[in-house]
Automatic annotation (TrEMBL):
One of its GO terms (molecular function) is zinc ion binding. This is ATP-dependent metalloprotease. The lineage of its organism: Bacteria, Pseudomonadati, Pseudomonadota, Gammaproteobacteria, Enterobacterales. Its EC number is 3.4.24.-. Residues 8-96 form the Peptidase M41 FtsH extracellular domain. InterPro entries: Pept_M41_FtsH_extracell. It comes from the Bacteria. It comes from Salmonella enterica I. One of its GO terms (biological process) is proteolysis. Pfam families: FtsH_ext. One of its GO terms (cellular component) is membrane. Keywords: Cell membrane, Hydrolase, Membrane, Metalloprotease, Protease. It is an enzyme of class 3 (hydrolase).
Length: 138
C-alpha cells in the first residue's frame, strides 16, 4: 500500500474518531413524546397548558398535570403568542442550539487541511517532473 493511501486512511480514521467524540458531547435527542400542532392548540384553548418553551420552530410543552411533550410550528403563526398569553401560559424563549466551538473549528478546518495536503503532493510531484526535464543528461 502506498504512503498516500496510508495517509488518507489515517486521516479518515482520525476524522471518524473526532466526529464521534464531538457528537457524544453535543446535545442529545430528548425522549419526550411528539404531539401534532393542532392538538397543542386545542389544549391551549382548553387551559391545559402551563408552560411553552419555544426554540425556533420547536415548542417544548408542560401541561398543568406535569406531562410534557414536544410539538413543531408548521407555519408562522402570528396569533400563537397572543393566544398563549391570553390563556396565562408561561412563555419561555430559548436561543437556538449551536454546535460546540471545537466541532465548528474541526468542520471548517479539516477540509482545508486535507486540500492543502493534496495541493502539496500535487505541487511536489509537478515540481519534481519539471526538475527532471531540465536536468536530464543528454
Amino acid at each position: 500500500m502506498s504512503d498516500m493511501a496510508k495517509n488518507l486512511i489515517l486521516w479518515l480514521v482520525i476524522a471518524v474518531v473526532l466526529m464521534s467524540v464531538f457528537q457524544s458531547f453535543g446535545p442529545s435527542e430528548s425522549n419526550s413524546r411528539k404531539v401534532d400542532y393542532s392538538t397543542f392548540l386545542q389544549e391551549v384553548n382548553q387551559d391545559q397548558v402551563r408552560e411553552a418553551r419555544i426554540n425556533g420552530r420547536e415548542i417544548n410543552v408542560t401541561k398543568k398535570d406535569s406531562n410534557r411533550y414536544t410539538t413543531y410550528i408548521p407555519i408562522n403563526d402570528p396569533k400563537l403568542l397572543d393566544n398563549l398569553l391570553t390563556k396565562n401560559v408561561k412563555v419561555v424563549g430559548e436561543p437556538p442550539e449551536e454546535p460546540s466551538l471545537l466541532a465548528s473549528i474541526f468542520i471548517s478546518w479539516f477540509p482545508m487541511l486535507f486540500a492543502d495536503r493534496r495541493l502539496d503532493l500535487l505541487h511536489a510531484s509537478d515540481a519534481g517532473r519539471r526538475w527532471q526535464r531540465r536536468h536530464v543528461v543528454r
